[in-house]
Amino acid sequence: MASTPPPRAPREAVPGFEAGPEATGTPRRRAGRHRGEGQWAVGHFTPLNANEQFKKDDDGLNVRTRIETIYSKRGFDSIDPADLRGRMRWWGLYTQRKPGIDGGKTAVLEPHELDDEFFMLRVRIDGGRLNVAQLRTIAELSQEFARGTADLTDRQNVQFHWIRIEDVPEIWRRLEAVGLSTTEACGDTPRVILGSPVAGIAADEIIDGTPAIEEIQRRVIGNPAFSNLPRKFKSAVSGSPQLDVVHEINDVSFVGVVHPELGPGFDVWVGGGLSTNPRLGERLGAWVPLEEVADVYEGVVSIFRDYGYRRLRNRARLKFLLADWGAERFRRVLEDEYLLRGLADGPAPELPVDAWRDHIGAHRQQDGRYYVGFAPKVGRVDGATLAKIAELAAQFGSDRIRTTVQQKMLILDVPQERVAELTEALAALDLQVEPSPFRRGTMACTGIEFCKLAIVETKARGASLIGELERRLPEFTEPVTVNINGCPNSCARIQTADIGLKGQLVTDADGRQVEGFQVHLGGSLGLEPGFGRKVRGLKVTAAELPDYVERVLRRFEAGRADGERFAA
Ligand code: SF4
């Protein structure tokens, strides 16, 4: 694929590496005040925390052999704790929360007291691309090994729960037989590469990023040169003008643009991220042709590996390095030390026309057929439903299904004359092609049902909130996003929602500690990117939630000017 000079061979990602002037062609900058941040590029290879220690002790990828040969045969109790709570993530496995432990105990108990002997297993779905055989396999695995669970995540993946360690090798065998994997689905690794769900088919597409995603997968995923990063590394490639991969909040994103002289290519964004210190990504101002996206990705992930901060886990994302360096220096290091060539300057993407960027509804493709996007509630589906979706796709002549970053799905390649029939068949499964704005715009993370960090319940609460709002506000048609997190982390991107709800314990009118939410208002991506404001003192109990959201939406409706979209 590379028509340009190949990237440098990945540098040794183990202690002992010191990239000096001879390796880079430029004098190595000392990191000055960051000498204590554990950056490999300035010679700091001594682990400064327990995570860095277990990664140094053994590469996370190596745990697979132990799972296959020891743990799956001897059972849960045989698992080394450093593997159980560390390296198993490199293969998409997290222990799930023991049932019945309330949110008040989350911060009090030791990790082993929260651990159930079952696992969450994340299947990575790069670009959100699935075919019928793959979806059938996911559905079968869900029903056979995961008690029917199969949640759609907001990063285009599928997550199983209730997985026994004994079953993991067989699950891998079946996934890999159809071209899927759990490799580096979690852990301090290059996670799933987001991609436009309508890549290669959308009538308004600028450029199809699929070949770049495939090339990155080939070069980077499962490659030990990139399997010990300071923390997770999130990425996206989309040539859709809908800006449909939350490019503002990834570690690196490639966004389709048309260069006035060079034509269609990608604009590069780096250093976005949410969680407790949210930061929007910044443009490097560089235009990259399709053939060079993988080179630039490799350069950016290498900078993260070599220069990323490894002392404190809560400062180890790329966004902190970017905040200290700035985009200009970041681009210079990328060009001078990693690509060994300059990048062309390029334009910024245009703002999308639509507030919704989820591809819900029926839309005409380049080839005259249609893609049909549909909404389950808060990403909750199950194996039986996924099996039926696979059968519907096959029955309607499609072999292409897609997942989205809004916990939704698409079936591609539907003949125009069969769209209505498919819409009806999906509705019979409670999968709406024309959903209410509440169903369309509400997302929820895993929450206390399975997540060890959770303080409150999220999925059932989100589904019930949708039902309440549909009943109370049947006339409300404006796009609105409601994102629900079970704890202060931001797996459901609360800072980017019109109404963001951060799970915590709150005091109710009777003075009791109950499940509730800190409210963030006015966040958005796409049209006017910005983070929602934490409304000081505004906390609602879970029981008050429908009343509160209804009040906010009614207030908006009453005061809104023509054409104004929801912005609390
Ligand atoms: Fe778990 Fe918190 Fe993430 Fe929700 S936001 S999935 S509760 S870590």
Automatic annotation (TrEMBL):
Recorded GO molecular functions are: sulfite reductase (ferredoxin) activity
InterPro entries named among the record's database cross-references: NIR_SIR_4Fe-4S, NiRdtase/SiRdtase_haem-b_fer, Nit/Sulf_reduc_fer-like_dom_sf, NO2/SO3_Rdtase_4Fe4S_dom, NO2/SO3_Rdtase_4Fe4S_sf, NO2/SO3_Rdtase_FeS/sirohaem_BS
Q: Please report the stretch or stretches of sequence annotated as the Nitrite/sulphite reductase 4Fe-4S domain.
A: 186-337, 440-568
* Protein name per the record: assimilatory sulfite reductase (ferredoxin)
Cofactors: [4Fe-4S] cluster
Which residue intervals make up region (Disordered)?
Answer: 1-36
EC identifiers of the protein: 1.8.7.1
Q: Can you name the source organism?
A: Streptomyces polyrhachis
